[in-house]
Design a protein that fits this description.
This protein is of the alpha+beta class and 120 residues long. It is built from two helices and nine strands. Strand 8 and strand 9 form a beta hairpin. It is globular.
């Protein structure tokens, strides 16, 4: 049963796309591993960065398979953060919230730019 559960979890992580939905009162981020909601009142800033900031990110609870980072991480400079990042993509959206930072990107540049415009 445990082996089956792990296989299903790995399948979800690998094949469920990352999605962002921006509403009037919250931001919803869904992925195959860890979904989250951010209240709009908690958002301090949203910025489009040319790449993921150079930091030593340690995985707290999530997935880091060399292709993407999904879940909870801690950076030496960044502190507590959530990542939904494809590592082979250059641009990254940084959302600074009250207690943590969220990094997110997409393999589709147009989709990521639409997310950023909705966040602005």
């Amino acid at each position: 049963v445990c082996l089956l559960w792990v296989c299903v979890l790995m399948f979800r992580i690998d094949f469920t796309p990352i999605k962002v939905s921006v509403g009037s009162d919250k931001i919803e981020i869904t992925s195959g591993y860890s979904d989250m909601e951010i209240d709009i009142d908690e958002v301090q800033s949203a910025e489009l960065l040319p790449k993921l900031p150079n930091d030593e990110y340690k995985r707290v609870n999530g997935s880091d398979d060399g292709q993407k980072k999904i879940g909870k991480f801690r950076g030496k400079k960044t502190g507590k953060c959530r990542m939904y990042v494809w590592l082979d993509q250059e641009n990254v959206i940084e959302i600074k919230a009250t207690d943590y930072t969220v990094f997110i990107n997409s393999k589709d540049e147009d989709e990521m730019n639409a997310w950023y415009q909705a966040l602005k």
